């Protein structure tokens, strides 16, 4: 089996840099853009996130099945030739993602309140579908690049680094841009998104040119008319304990991470009155990944995947919970969340390699690989976590009584913001600990058996 190279790892990393740039803008700033620039209420924005993400989540398995089906057609059409299953989508879909993301941060002043809400729904859903068109094939790439557990860990680390860079870059630049456009927030958001859009297109193209699909699967003539049964696929997935564990943990972790990202702007603006210092969280947010990357494979080799992700999730939950009772101070928050972020980063870095393990295990259970369907199903549960986080962010602000653009917020509102930004991540990471500790059952010995069986 061909070994993956540094160029392949770099290309895979750049794919998630591109994903992270638009996703980071959506996760970290779209709620604030809607409430403070477009003029949508927080509750309406939260409902929008919930509805759009539920549709987006349903759309993910459909996209996974689509990639599997189109691959069969291309294989049968190009017999005897090497056909890439997932790479082409990076090139075909990059401009769709960027165009939709820019539209998402345009605030037409001439529209009425109802029309602005319709505009927000249309552009956000369009971005979500374009993102799915690229992200499902991109995420499935790891499973066809290598079957070696160590190489998959390396790819997971590369993706973790790329995603962290893409998600953190907006947190560094956007507060600085907004500070310069304090009198015209709409323009500031749009300029920032346009900059990241150009960077995303370049990153997607680099990824397309440098990744390689090394695991080839034969398609027989009898497979041409085979239909993908979602009922059958789901019945197998619920028996796939590693998949169930990763799914529950990912929903919980993403819920906490997304809430934290969405509330950071509010926390630094309202609780700390230190919006410019928010940029520091961008730097401290990426440091854990850079620190852990060289050692992650060794950590997994020594302690195993299960112990590594479960214990790190528990420690992260405890640290976030401790921050809830500490006094509000920007430097305290930055320091403590840095250490919480180290332990939160570990399972987030390794999860992509674990998903590839789940794909192998699924083939072990039912004899069908279906990378697109499996990854699409996993993406479905991630989107559900994002949907709940977006809904809770918007509705949570309404529940605690947040008043947009107010000179100051009440003490109860400030505590509510603090609970949203650190209390909910603590709960999410604790749920992730329970899932990894008591549901994940793929031991190193079992993993060897799985790979030998599906390759025999």
TrEMBL record:
- GO cellular component terms, A-Z: plasma membrane
Entry's Gene Ontology molecular function annotations: symporter activity
Keywords, comma-separated and alphabetical: Membrane, Transmembrane, Transmembrane helix
Query: In terms of domain of life, where is this protein from?
Result: Bacteria
Q: Which InterPro entries match?
A: MFS_2, MFS_trans_sf, Na/Gal_symport
Pfam families per the UniProt record, alphabetical: MFS_2
What parts of the sequence cross the membrane? 12-31, 37-55, 89-107, 119-144, 156-182, 188-211, 243-268, 274-296, 308-326, 332-355, 387-407, 413-436
GO BP terms in the entry: carbohydrate transport; sodium ion transport
**Under which name does UniProt file this protein?**
MFS transporter
Q: Which organism is it from?
A: Oceanirhabdus seepicola
* Upper classification of the organism: Bacteria, Bacillati, Bacillota, Clostridia, Eubacteriales
């Amino acid at each position: 089996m061909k070994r993956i190279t540094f160029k392949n790892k770099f290309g895979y990393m750049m794919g998630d840099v591109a994903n992270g740039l638009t996703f980071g803008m959506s996760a970290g700033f779209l709620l604030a853009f809607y409430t403070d620039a477009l003029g949508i209420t927080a509750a309406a924005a939260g409902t929008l996130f919930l509805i759009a993400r539920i549709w987006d989540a349903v759309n993910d398995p459909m996209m996974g099945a689509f990639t599997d089906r189109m691959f069969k057609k291309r294989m049968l059409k190009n017999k005897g030739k090497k056909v890439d299953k997932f790479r082409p989508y990076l090139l075909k879909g990059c401009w769709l993602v960027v165009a939709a993301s820019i539209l998402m941060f345009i605030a037409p002043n001439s529209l009425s309140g109802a029309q602005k809400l319709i505009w927000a729904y249309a552009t956000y859903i369009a971005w979500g579908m374009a993102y799915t068109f690229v992200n499902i094939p991109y995420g499935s790439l790891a499973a066809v690049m290598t079957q070696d557990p160590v190489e998959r860990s390396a790819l997971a680390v590369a993706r973790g680094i790329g995603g962290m860079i893409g998600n953190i870059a907006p947190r560094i630049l956007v507060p600085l841009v907004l500070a310069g456009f304090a009198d015209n927030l709409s323009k500031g958001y749009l300029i920032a998104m346009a900059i990241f859009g150009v960077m995303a297109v370049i990153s997607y193209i680099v990824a397309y040119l440098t990744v390689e699909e090394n695991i080839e699967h034969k398609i027989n003539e009898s497979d041409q008319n085979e239909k993908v049964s979602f009922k059958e696929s789901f019945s197998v997935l619920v028996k796939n304990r590693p998949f169930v564990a990763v799914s529950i943990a990912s929903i919980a972790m993403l819920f906490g991470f997304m809430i934290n990202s969405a509330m950071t702007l509010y926390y630094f603006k309202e609780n700390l009155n230190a919006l410019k210092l928010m940029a520091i969280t961008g730097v401290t947010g990426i440091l854990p990944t850079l620190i852990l990357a060289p050692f992650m494979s060794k950590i997994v080799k020594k302690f195993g995947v299960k112990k590594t992700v479960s214990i790190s999730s528990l420690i992260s939950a405890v640290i976030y919970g401790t921050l809830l009772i500490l006094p509000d101070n920007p430097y305290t928050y930055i320091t403590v969340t840095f250490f919480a972020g180290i332990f939160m980063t570990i399972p987030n870095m390794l999860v992509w390699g674990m998903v590839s393990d789940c794909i192998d295990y699924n083939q072990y259970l039912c004899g069908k690989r279906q990378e697109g369907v499996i990854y699409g199903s996993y993406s479905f549960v991630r989107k559900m976590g994002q949907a709940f986080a977006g809904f809770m962010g918007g509705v949570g602000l309404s529940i605690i009584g947040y008043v947009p653009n107010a000179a100051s917020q009440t003490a109860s509102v400030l505590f509510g913001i603090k609970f949203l930004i650190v209390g909910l991540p603590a709960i999410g990471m604790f749920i992730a600990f329970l899932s990894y500790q008591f549901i994940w059952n793929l031991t190193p010995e079992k993993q060897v058996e799985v790979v030998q069986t599906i390759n025999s």
